[in-house]
Amino acid sequence: MGSEYVKDKISMCYYFSMPRHRGTYKPNHPEPYEISRSQIQAFMNCPACFWMNRSKGIKFPGMPGFLLNTATDTLLKKDFDVYRELQKPHPFMERHGLGHLVPFKHDDFEQWTKSLQLGLRVNYEPADLIIGGGLDDVWHNRETDEIHVVDYKSTAGRRNEEGTALNTISLDGIYKEAYKNQMDIYQWILKQNGFNVSNIGYFVYVNGDQHFQDGMLEEDIDSANMKFDVQLIEYEGNSDWVEQTILNLKACLDSSECPEHADTGFGPKGDKQCEYAELFDGMRLNNLDI
Asked: Most buried of 237, 264, 279, 287, CB within 10 angstroms?
């Protein structure tokens, strides 16, 4: 998969020692500035908040880590890692008609999963930015020699209208646009690194059942079990938007003026303005300094 030159280029990108340019953006720094996949999404959500955070170093309140989600990701990876070593399809894949796919085995795969290090990355020279993140999994199509980006997701959904089962999960909804953007970006990065990447990606969704189980505690030992429905969602990616968005992001970083806050895209229906714009407006109305 890919040439030896591509493989050497990726390894050099990971391990070549150089001063990193991250945190607050410094226009005169000699090295490319590092931008994560989540920071691209932050720019798309609200250019003003992105600029304040990245260009001026203003820290916004953070979100607590979703440790249960991280745990399900870890366990799913363990499941597929067994078959990665065997180079066989997991029975879950076979049940969904994907017996021609196997978990992808590559020397750099473990590095690609390290999000905090931007383990999957590319130096996008037109913007002088390193774009990266950490993916969950990659599956290899043995028939076409393409690879498919795979993302693990966790939720605890509602019952269906009949009350007989959990609702089927879809990729509809304003906040799930970020999931699709994530897939598009990872497909783009792998393509930039010379891999034969399919536009078809997969979401492995585990859905915690809180409705049809009688409880979770074991009677005889201090242990508990939570059951999950598992669903596979196919997604056809489109990374045509990625490069122009990166160029727009770079222009935002280089701007001396704060752009306008987003006036839509927030709230359950995506029809509300940026929450911080609403906060600042409220402070102004009450003659409070900001």
From this structure: 237
Q: Is the pLDDT of residue 10 over 70?
A: no
pLDDT reported for residue 17: 57
pTM: 0.89
3-state DSSP of the chain: CCCHHHHHHHHHHHHCCCCCECCCCCCCCCCCEEEEHHHHHHHHHCHHHHHHHHCCCCCCCCCCCCHHHHHHHHHHHHHHHHHHHHCCCCHHHHHCCCCCEEECCCCCHHHHCCHHHCCEEEEEHHHCEEEEECCCEEEEECCCCCEEEEEEEEECCCECCCCCCECCCCCCCHHHHHHHHHHHHHHHHHHHCCCCECCEEEEEEEEECCCCCCCCECCCCCCECCCEEEEEEEEECCCCCHHHHHHHHHHHHHCCCCCCCCCCCECCCCCECCHHHHHHHHHHHCCCCC
Task: Select 4-259's CATH number: 3.30.70, 3.90.320, 3.60.20, 3.40.1000.
Answer: 3.90.320
The overall average pLDDT reported for the chain is: 91
